[in-house]
Specification:
- The strands form eight sheets. A six-stranded antiparallel β-sheet has the order 6-7-8-9-11-10, sandwiched between helices.
- A hairpin with a 2-residue loop joins strand 19 and strand 20.
- By secondary structure, it is of the alpha+beta class.
- The chain binds flavin-adenine dinucleotide.
- The site of flavin-adenine dinucleotide has 22 residues, from strand 18, strand 20 and helix 34.
Length: about 1000
């Protein structure tokens, strides 16, 4: 053979076939349309005309769109198909270029024979340098395309070779058939690596240059080759008579690596040494690299054959070791261009298998039990890389600082100990030339004993980096499925299957840690580059990259944080089951919590239909109960509570309560309790909203404020005795209660201002003070008051207060007047002003303990606030319903109100605002369920501000649409409005909550 002819797309450049499929998918063109159009139109179509330069790219777009439209039977626009292909085919496959260079060095002629086209700029498509070829034949330039004979003949004549002296590589069968019939030898290219291997066999010459990936040695990296040769002769008896040709591998950032070539009769070698200059402690330990490679190499892991280790710095300036050069493919680009999807899959499978082999090495048998410490690997690593980072810090990277705090708080428990490679990436494996099989694993610099999952996570880094990312090429945005590359989840699954592990639920922690580590390494390289020590040209740009990596790391930390947050959901069987996750003898040591499965159930239900069936049933029963029993009596209740009898309960009330109780619609508010329905906050939120549709409804279901909050206090903090005495009758709906905190003489938004006193007197407590806005105080059924006062004015600010249970008939308790809200007195509940004058109760009436007042108040207010908000949403829904009904029937100036734009806008705005509020409240309820009231403090404060003000606006629009009727007692709107407005002050004014939100936000 004298010449090799290469096709362009699919041989020297990536294949256009997968790109076409991808294009069709993206543009929603029926799959297969493009190739079918090319085939069906044949010689008469736009495609061959484009190939022979008869039409240019722009003209092609027009004609080809029409052709595709006819074939697909629907409108198809492929104007940008060619630019799409051009974009995807711009980088040549490095292995092929390398083969071409080798061919030329061996004296073979090379040609490029391509069917291409004239681009919109008038130039032909040729995204590869002509310098690689002796002859370039472009169909669009010469006016004839493959598989027509003249183009082959032209190529042969320009090469000045006979057909039988040439080999032609193409990915299209018809092109090969034509070449073959002319007597040219052919190779069908499906996978370029396989094809190059076949070419290599045919020609019997190596087609991978030994110099591949190397550069001349930089001045600061040179060493004494004479002394080195002397050393080899002394140690290995090699009898070398001359100095070697030395080149430096551009691969690898840290330990300088050299290709040592003593000519054709001596095996080529690779030398790895420490970098010169002052180094960070424990870094660049080539001695360790040598030791581990020797050890794992004897236990099933393929590594390059090792020749010698020299720890004597006097030979070439630093310690070093020498190994044989292993021939094979190193894939720099993780998208593996030029391969078939099948081969790509195998490459990744091999990588995972090799990783498993490394992790399965028996460290005792391999004699490396002391190669690293046992246990707490990740913790130590976090410490090491934190220190390394801090030593190399050149500027502040905020996400790095956050990770430094976060990682130690989220360490995995129960790690196993195995060999870890420490730098698992596709280009640290050498693959066989003819098939995807690992023949050596390289770069053991960061290896140690530790948690194997850290290796696995590290190997997944490219999935989160863009394709053009410097130093490590990424896979982000690549169509993995199309290319046959497993996703990172599939890698994880393969690994777990192979190692017989169940799912690794905290894998995002390991990802965060991996990115942190790589950021720290890059920062080190960056600092060294500033001092001229780094072994790569790219080092200078790594400063910015460190920042990018640590930002990605932080995004994983946030993701893991959210998973942990969800995991704490007490309501839906929070799954923190421990699973033994390691095969064989270590099985007990290795366990990880498994939440992912139960996580499915922990989604926030944003619609009633997403609730558990039993709650949906309750919801529907409640709606029915409202229809059957509540709305029909609403007017009667309203009239009664405006009459002179209003300070006694409506005569129907107790009957309705009994009905609700027997219908199972009772105490629905109490979560996780023996007493209530055992609903979580989200579930109750939906029910609470229904009750909020009528001001009188909550009490019918024993779900009204302030009793609900008081019952929660007793359920959570009360003694058995207190529960028996007060909680039980409250739960049974026999008595009512109130909560006395606010005082007229001090600003009570700040509860530390409270002046009422609690003094000890023997075994009794004596209470004095004046309270107001004590809701429920006026009700004749009110039997118990929770009183908040100060028992120790010298204690810390939030420890001075206590809560004491005061029976309403205790001497000295004097209810002096009802207060009104916009004139409403809320009879029979009422908001009372109450004087406590030397009120004496037994010490046992203290709730929890002296000084716990604030703590109890906080616990009480979370659920209380969310209940208020959900009820308000019910009021808003009802107001909107009433408004919609009203505007359909009222006619002004000749038209129904419902036809007015302003009314339509008001309806729309109200719908938007109600739904916004509901979602925020549901999210808050969910957070309370999964993380607890404390963790949801900000969200609770947010709804407490957002909902009353928004609902006020919704009701206000309804009021306006109603005209004067809305303000009257004939409709519930005025009552709703007064209550929603009051709630901007009750339970703490907006400003106080806003201050708390902002504080948390800023923190
Ligand atoms: C209908 C209703 C029912 C109630 N029920 C009860 C009950 O059952 N039990 C009970 O103890 N109390 C109850 N309250 C009282 C309520 O909790 C208090 O009114 C509330 O805590 C505010 O206290 P204050 O009225 O003393 O206002 P102040 O503390 O005097 O505050 C006045 C205003 O100052 C502003 N302000 C306060 N702090 C800040 C700040 N940090 N930054 C900026 N501005 C600020 C706010 O606008 C606030 O409205 C009820 C109130 C209402 C209206």
């Amino acid at each position: 053979f004298r010449a090799v002819i290469f096709d362009m797309g699919g041989v020297v450049l990536p294949s256009p076939f997968p790109m076409t499929k991808e294009y069709e998918l993206q543009k929603k063109i029926p799959p297969g349309t493009i190739w079918k159009t090319i085939k069906d139109y044949g010689d008469k179509g736009a495609w061959p005309k484009l190939e022979i330069g008869e039409i240019n790219a722009e003209e092609f777009g027009q004609i080809f769109s029409e052709e595709c439209t006819k074939i697909a039977g629907e409108t198809v626009n492929v104007h940008d198909f060619l630019p799409y292909l051009e974009h995807g085919m711009k980088s040549p496959i490095s292995e092929v270029l390398d083969a071409i260079n080798c061919l030329r060095q061996e004296g073979y002629k090379t040609a490029l024979l391509t069917n291409n086209w004239i681009q919109s700029d008038g130039k032909s498509l040729l995204p590869i340098s002509r310098d690689h070829f002796d002859v370039v034949i472009e169909s669009a330039v010469v006016g004839v395309n493959k598989p027509k004979y003249p183009i082959y003949n032209l190529c042969l004549s320009q090469l000045n070779v006979k057909p039988e002296d040439t080999i032609f590589l193409d990915d299209m069968q018809p092109n090969l058939v034509a070449a073959k019939s002319l007597g040219i030898h052919t190779i069908k290219v499906e996978d370029v690596h396989v094809a190059i291997n076949e070419l290599e066999q045919q020609l019997n010459i190596p087609l991978t240059s030994t110099n591949k990936g190397t550069t001349p040695v930089r001045k600061e990296m040179q060493f004494d080759t004479r002394k080195f040769t002397e050393y080899l002769n002394n140690q290995l008896n090699m009898g070398l008579t001359h100095e070697p040709e030395v080149r430096e591998f551009s691969h690898g950032q840290s330990n300088p690596t050299y290709l040592i070539d003593y000519g054709p009769n001596v095996t080529k070698m690779v030398l790895r040494k420490k970098p010169p200059g002052k180094l960070l402690p424990s870094a660049h330990a080539v001695e360790r690299e040598y030791r581990i490679m020797k050890a794992v190499g004897n236990h099933g892991v393929k590594v390059p054959p090792l020749l010698a280790l020299c720890e004597d710095s006097s030979i070439i300036g630093t310690p070093f070791y020498v190994m044989e050069l292993v021939q094979g493919n190193i894939y720099k680009d993780p998208s593996l261009p030029g391969m078939t999807p099948e081969s790509r899959k195998k490459v990744y499978r091999e990588m995972v298998d090799t990783l498993c082999k490394i992790h399965r090495v028996d460290i005792d048998k391999a004699g490396i039990n002391d190669y690293g410490k046992h246990g707490n690997y990740v913790e130590r690593q976090v410490g090491i890389w934190t220190k390394q980072y801090q030593r190399s810090e050149t500027h502040t990277i905020p996400s790095m600082n956050r990770l430094i705090t976060w990682l130690p708080q989220h360490l995995p428990t129960n790690e196993v100990t195995s060999v870890v490679h420490g730098d698992v990436r596709i280009d640290n494996f050498i693959f066989r030339r003819d098939q995807p099989e690992v023949v050596a694993t390289l770069d053991w610099e960061l290896s140690t004993l530790g948690d194997p999952i850290s290796d696995l996570a590290y190997s997944c880094i490219p999935y989160f980096l863009p394709t053009n990312f410097p130093i490590i090429s990424g896979l982000k945005g690549v169509n993995l499925n199309e290319l046959g590359i497993p996703t990172h989840e599939q890698i994880l699954e393969m690994y777990c299957n192979e190692m017989q592990l169940p799912n690794i639920d905290n894998f995002d922690f390991y990802m965060a840690f991996s990115f942190f580590r790589v950021a720290s390494i890059l920062q080190g390289v960056y600092k060294r580059s500033k001092q001229g020590q780094a072994s790569s040209d790219q080092a200078g740009v790594t400063g910015k990259l460190a920042e990018h990596m640590s930002d990605i790391g932080w995004s994983f930390a946030s993701k893991e944080g959210f998973r942990l947050f969800n995991k704490t959901n007490p309501s839906i069987g929070s799954g923190t089951r421990k699973y033994s996750t390691h095969a064989g003898k270590d099985s007990e040591k290795y366990s990880r919590s498994k939440v992912a499965e139960s996580n499915k159930d922990m989604k926030l239900p944003i619609h009633v239909s997403a609730l558990p069936p039993s709650t949906q049933q309750l919801h529907s029963n409640l709606l029915q109960f409202m229809e059957d029993h509540v709305y029909p009596v609403e007017k009667s209740f309203s009239e009664y509570y405006s009459s002179e009898n209003r300070w006694t309960p409506h005569p129907e009330l107790e009957k309705l309560k009994a009905k609700a109780k027997s219908a199972g619609l009772w105490n629905l508010f109490l979560p996780h309790s023996d007493h209530g329905a055992g609903l979580c906050n989200v579930e109750y939120a939906y029910l609470c909203e229904v009750m909020g549709r009528c001001l009188y409804a909550p009490e019918i279901f024993n779900c009204s404020a302030p009793d609900t909050g008081n019952m929660e206090v007793l359920a959570e903090f009360g003694t058995e005795d207190q529960k028996q005495r007060w909680l039980k009758p409250l739960l049974d709906g026999e008595i009512r209660s109130c909560f006395a905190m606010t005082e007229p003489q001090v600003a009570s938004s700040d509860a530390t201002n409270i002046e009422s006193s609690i003094d000890e007197d023997g075994d009794r407590l004596v209470l004095n003070g004046r309270k107001w806005w004590t809701s429920g105080a006026m009700d004749p059924r009110m039997k118990i008051i929770i009183f908040m006062g100060k028992n120790d004015k010298n204690a810390a600010r939030h420890k001075q207060q206590s809560m004491v249970l005061v029976p309403s008939d205790t001497p000295g308790v004097e209810i002096i007047r009802p207060l009104t809200v916009f004139g409403f007195d809320d009879a029979p509940v009422g908001h009372g002003e109450v004087i406590f004058n030397n009120v004496s109760v037994p010490k046992e009436n203290m709730i929890l303990e002296p000084g716990a007042g604030f703590k109890i108040a906080q616990a009480r207010l979370g659920p209380g606030r969310i209940h208020h908000c959900m009820r308000l949403i019910g009021s808003a829904e009802r107001s909107l319903d009433l408004m919609k009904e009203r505007v359909k029937s009222r006619v002004t100036f000749g038209r129904a109100l419902v036809t007015r734009d302003t009314i339509l806008r008001d309806i729309a705005t109200s719908r938007i605002e109600i739904d916004q509020c509901r979602l925020l409240v549901l999210m808050t309820a969910h957070m309370m369920d999964v993380a607890g009231n404390k963790a949801a403090a900000k969200e609770i404060a947010m709804i407490k501000v957002a909902v009353p003000i928004t609902v006020s606006r919704v009701i206000d629009r309804a009021l306006q649409a109603f005209g004067a009727a809305g303000l009257s007692g004939d409709f519930p709107l005025a009552g709703f409005y007064a209550w929603s407005r009051a709630l901007r002050i009750a339970d703490g004014p907006d400003a106080v909550h806003e201050a708390a939100i902002a504080k948390k936000e800023l923190a």
